[in-house]
Protein: DUF460 domain-containing protein
Amino acid sequence: MQNPDYQTGVIFGIDIAKGSSRARELPRYAVAVLKEGEVTHHKMVRLPRILKMVREEHPEYIAVDNIFELAPSKKELVRFLEKLPEGVRLVQVTGGLHKKSLLHLAKENGLSFNQFDPNEEAEACARLASMGVGSEVSLFEDITKIKVSRARSLGRGGWSQNRYRRKVHGAVRERSREVEAILKKASKEHGYTYTSRISSGFGGYVRAEFTVYAKRNQVPVGSGSTADAQIRVSNVVRDKIQYTPLTRVKRRPTIVGIDPGTTVGIAILSFDADLLLLKSVRGISHDEVVKLIAEYGKPAVIGTDVTPTPGSVERIRRSFNAVISTPSTEISSEEKIALGRPYGYSNDHERDSLAAALYAHRNYKNMFSRVEKKAPPHLNMDKIKLYVIQGASIGEAIEKVTGVPVPEKKPVKVLETPDEGTEERDRKISEKLKLKDTQISNLRDYLQELKKELKSKDKRISKLELKLEKMREANHLQIRKDKEIEIREHKISVLKKDLRRSKKSLKKAHSNIKKLKQIRKMEIKGEGIPVKILLSFTREAILETKDHLGIKKGDVIFLQDASGGSTVTASMVVELGVRAVITSSDVTYAAEDVFFRANLPLLKNVRIQRVDDFAVVDPALLQEALDGWEKEAERKRQEEKEKKLKHLVDEYRSERRRGLT
Structure:
């Protein structure tokens, strides 16, 4: 089964043996390791074990017949590819968008296997990949993202917050400049470009993002972190999976679509319409375009989507001595979108170049079909098609490929008498003329039928175009209607939310009014004493509450947040001449001492009834708390007197001792 003309490195062939990638339980696989022409089979292996084998063997290819046997979705497939070592490529041997069966490919390449045995299927995948059969699976753009950012949060801050922020942002700036210096050097050596986007912050950078237009393995920057800054390097995932056919030893002829300009779009197709490359590059030179196209084969046709041919495209065509392909009329945007939809594209430049390549392929599609019908199947079809594109007939192209000239038909000499020969010759010429006349008459009739059929088809096309235009108008109206409905539904949703909020606020207001009425009744009946709310123990809050609620002498105050109080704020409260201060939290020692010296009761944890900025306290509870405070204050005063008396006695004794000595 080995073919020595192709790959000789280690190749893993994988086929699912039990279960499914979409099942809850991890599936098991059959793995065939192709190394130096010999195959080693591993049966019923789980995916983690396969990844370990890949890291140990570092194969050139991992070959499968369906990539979604390895992962249930594109997202999981991306995770799988990110775990592979650098240089290991995933190959789907059955092709890309236009897949062929594994059994058919094996027969085409002289292989045979039991399609019901996963081990033999895995070996067939490895063998086909070694022959250059299949398409490499690419989920990553040739773009690398590098992000330099803070390694930790700055937190809520404190006295040293600015100094800490400056230190972290300075570290981010330092690492960003290191990365940029490496990229500048590498871009000069390897010829790729990069862009940067920096967000400045206090004392440095908050973050820096670099977009490098090169593959991850070409960028000499790795992920890592320090105490203050971190670097994250990642691939850019494609919108759609790209399949690139494996290149064999010989260069295959290709069809190339070019969209010229500042940003050049390049699309390369095989004669089988497989997409080999779809890319757009900004500021690329003519020589770089030619080099890039040459890496994927020998261009037979260079296509463009405009008429006449742009000068830059003509220069590329002359570089390869290829045939030019231009549309007879301008290709509409709708047609370009329809042509490129099965393949996918990232921007308008890729779309236009892909449309140009597909339009060129469509022009030669019928000719390719005639070649495949007339040429023997064992010959190189691509080479015959190339000769036909270059102007040869199919017979001449076959002759060039085989190297065997087609013998000319020589007239057969017939031995005859002079009289018999003349009569026979005249009869044959007459019969030939009649036959030619009949053929000409038949062809003329056929031509008339074709003209009638063409006229009928033109009418049908005209009717269909009219119908299509009406459908577009109806569709446009429906879209506008749907859009208007969507806008109105959004407005209704917003109004409903506002209504719910209003109802909630109204309900809360009713509840507050009810509580206020109860408080007012308690005040009138003498069952409650008004309490004025002081939100915080600050100078501004005291003045604002005084102006807003009118704090006067004899009022009771509830101090909601007692933290941060000082002798100044405590003195301000004392000067107001209030009767008592109620609090639910501890005040500072300095403030408590001011209240004590001023004989202002400071009551803790007295239950009050509160509605927003209004509150009442039960007179009995208040009096009980005041009595308790008075007892405690009297005890403290007595202790102070005792301390003072003791201090006087100690001083007197000290003076007596000094006098005696």
Observations:
- The CA atoms of residues 501 and 529 lie 34 Å apart.
- The chain has five domains: 11-133, 142-155+162-240, 252-374, 431-521, 529-645.
- The longest strand covers residues 229-245.
